[in-house]
Amino acid sequence: MPPMPEAVFTIRRFAAVALGAVLSVLAIDAVAAGDGPATNGGAVAAPESVGAGPLPAAIAGEYALQAGKLDDAARWYLEAARAAEGDAVLAERATRIALLARNDRFAGDALALWRARAARSLGMRNAEATLALQRKDEATARRELRNLLRGRGEGLKPEKDGWRYALLAMDAGSGDPQLIGRLLATLVDDIPQDLPAWLAFGEFAQQVQRQDVAAKIIGRVLQYYPNEPGVSLLHANQLRRSGKAPQARKILDRMGASAILLPDVAYGLAREYGALGDFAAAAAVLARGPQNDNTYILRASYLAQADDKAGVAAVYEELKRESASPNPGRRLLLGQVAEFIGRLDDALDWYASVPGGPQRWQARLRTAPVLHKLGRVDEAHARIRDIQTDATAADETRRDAYLLQADLFRNDNRPGDELATLDRGLAAYPDEPQLLYARALMWERRDDIARAEADLRRILALDADDVNALNALGYTLADRTDRYQEALELIARAYAAEPDNAAIIDSYGWVLYRLGRSEEALVELLRAFTKQKDAEIAAHVAEVLWALGRRDEAVNYFVEARRIDPDNRSLKRALDKTGAVLPPLPDKAGA
After folding, report:
1. pLDDT tens digits, residue range 2-22?
2. 408 vs 254: which has the higher pLDDT
3. What angle do CA 187, 190, 196 make, to 5 degrees?
4. CA nearest 226: which of 251, 249, 262?
5. Could you tell me if 472 and 440 are in contact, meaning their C-beta atoms sit under 8 angstroms apart?
6. What would the pLDDT profile of 55-102 be if each residue is shown by its tens digit?
7. What local confidence, expressed as pLDDT, does residue 157 receive?
8. Are 492 and 70 in contact (CB under 8 A)?
9. What pLDDT is stored for residue 260 in this prediction?
10. Angle at the Cα of 110 (from 104 to 116), degrees rounded to 5?
C-alpha cells in the first residue's frame, strides 16, 4: 500500500549497526578495492560467492539485505556467524535478519550460535519467543514470553522492562490473532504490576480484537490503580469497542472534573466522547480551563461534526476576543479557523493581515484554496503562480505551490492542467522527489504504469534508500503488473528499513499473495491491519481470505473496509474480482 500523496514521511536509512563502525569501514575499503558487488539500477546485487572468513560473507549479507533479497541476506549472515567463532554480535545479527526474512531454519541455526556465545539476555529471549511464534510453537512461545514478563535474563535478579520485549515479540506474531489471543489470555497473571505495562497490554489486546482479554486486563489494573485517569480512559475505550456505549459514557461522565486539572486527560476524554459520537460533549470538555491554539482548533472541529454552526461561530468569536493584538501565528490560526467554519471572506482578511515570516508564506499558500472555494478560480491560480515565480520565496515554499496547484486541478478533474503543473514544477526543480512522487501517483491513477514506474525509479536513482519510493514502486508492480519477484525485492528493501510500518507490511503481504503464497500473505496482512485500521488493508485481508476459501471471514473484512471507506479503489476491485455479496448498509435512522 503506497502512502497517501499528502503524507510526509521520515525516511530512515538502513544501517548495519550491529556490525559496528569497523566492519562498515572494511566493507567500504573492500568495495573501493574492487572486491564488492556491483550496483544495478539503484539496488545493490549480492555476490553469488565470496571468499573465506566472516567479513566477506557479512558484506555479501549486507548487500543482499539492501537489495531486498531477505533469504539471501539470512543465508550470508548465518555463514558469516558460523565463520566468526565466538562472535555473539554477528550471531545476534544473523538471528535478527533471519527472523525478518521469516526463515525459521536459518533463524534457529543462528539463534543456537547466539546461545552458545552469550548469556541469555532479554533480547535473546525476545528472539526465542519471536521464532516460536513464527513456528506456531505455542508452548515454547508461552514459556519465553512468561520469562520476559518476569524479567528473566541469565542472572538471578529480574531485569526491568522485560515486558516491553514480550510485547515486541507478540506484535511480531500478531499476524496470527487467534494464537496471540490465546497466549494473552494465559499470560495476564504474569504482567508486572507496572501501570505502563498494564496499559500497553490492554491496548494491544484491543488491537488484536480480544475484548474479553482486554476486559480481564483492565479489571485487574483497576484493582491496583482505581483512580488513575489513564486506566479509566482505557476502560471506557474497551467498553465502547465491546458495544457497551452506555457503560463507557458513565465512566467518561465521572471523569469530567479531572479533565480541568490534567490537559492530557482532557484530550483523551474528548477523543472518547467523539468516538461515542457525542461531539458536543467532546467540545465542552476542551472548553474548560486555559485555552491554546490546539484546544480552539479541536473545539471547532468537534462542534462542526456536531453540525453546531452557532457553537463554531462562538469559538471563532472567543478566539478573536483573546487575540486583541494577534501575532503572526495567531493571525494564521484565525484564518484557518475562519476557513474551517466557512467564513471564507474573513479567512482571506486574516491571511492578508499576516505581516511576515514563515507564517506569511503559509498564509499566501492557504489563500489560493479559499479563493478557489469562493469560485474565484482564475484568481486562485494567479496567486499560486505568483508564489511559484517569487524569487524571495524559499524553494520549499515554491515547490509546495506547484503541489498545491496540481492538487486543485486534480480535484477539478483537469488532468491535463495537473500534469502541466507538475511538469512546470520539475522544470523549475529538476528531480525534486515530492514532485516526482506526486506525478508518479498521478500516472498510476491514469493506469499509465510505465510512466509511474519511470518517475519512481528516478527517485531511487537519486536516493536508493527512499523508503516511500521503494514501497510505492514495489506495490505498483505487485498490484498492477505480473512482475511479482521484482516487486518483492523492492518492497523487501523498504521492509528491512521500516519493519513496523503498516503500509509496508501491507505491501509485503500483498506481493506474497500475488506470488501465490496466500498463507504467508495473510499473516503479514493481518499484522498490518492490527497496526492500522485502513480500508485498503482490510480489502486485501478479505481477498486473501476469500482465495483461501474462508468466505464468511472475508465478508466480515469487506464490510469493515466499506465502513472505513466505501469508495476505496482496492475495495471496489476486490469486490469485482471475488463477486462477494455484502449485506446492505444499515439504515441511518436505525443505525
Report:
1. 654 433 222 222 223 333 322
2. 408
3. 100
4. 251
5. yes
6. 999 999 999 998 899 999 999 999 999 999 999 999 999 999 999 999
7. 55
8. yes
9. 58
10. 135
Cell of 178: 487467534
Q: Count how many Cα atoms sit within 13 Å of the Cα of residue 425 in the half-sphere of its side chain.
A: 31
SS3 591: coil
- What is the Cα–Cα distance from 347 to 70, expressed in whole angstroms? 52
**pLDDT per residue over 441-455, tens digit each?**
999 999 999 999 999
CA 196/CA 202 separation, integer angstroms? 10
205-243 as b/e: b if 16+ CB within 10 A: bbbbebbebbbbbbebbbeeeeeebbbbbbbbbbbbbee
Rounded Cα distance between 431 and 466, Å, is: 13
Cα 242 to its chain centre, rounded Å, is: 25
218 in Cβ contact with 202 (< 8 Å): yes
**Rounded alpha-carbon distances, angstroms, from residue 275 to 248, 269, 288, 301, 304:** 11, 10, 20, 13, 15
Please say whether the beta carbons of 521 and 509 come within 8 A. yes
**DSSP character string of 413-429:** T-HHHHHHHHHHHHHHS
The set of cell numbers assigned to 112 is 543456537
Residue 339 and residue 368 in contact, taking contact as beta carbons nearer than 8 Å: no
For residue 151, the Cα-to-chain-centroid distance in whole angstroms is 29
Rounded Cα distance between 3 and 536, Å, is 11
Integer Cα distance of 358 and 301 in angstroms: 25
Rounded CA separation 129/441 (Å): 40
- Which is it for the CA torsion 101, 106, 111, 114, positive or negative? negative
Per-residue pLDDT reduced to its tens digit, 546-555: 999 999 999 9
- Pick from 351, 339, 330: nearest CA to 300: 339
Q: Distance (Å, rounded) from C-alpha 477 to C-alpha 487?
A: 6
The rounded distance, in Å, linking the Cα atoms of 27 and 19 is 11
Stretch 330-338: mean pLDDT, rounded? 90
Neighbouring residues of 193: CB distance < 8 A, sequence distance ≥ 6: 224
530 vs 172, 173, 407, 585, CA distance in Å?
11, 11, 31, 24
Tell me the DSSP string of 99-114.
HHTT-HHHHHHHHHHH
Q: Which of 500, 494, 447, 451 is nearest to 474 (CA)?
A: 494
pLDDT at position 39 is 37
Grid cell listed for 78: 548465518
| The amino acid at 423 | D
Please tell me the predicted confidence (pLDDT) of residue 41. Answer: 40
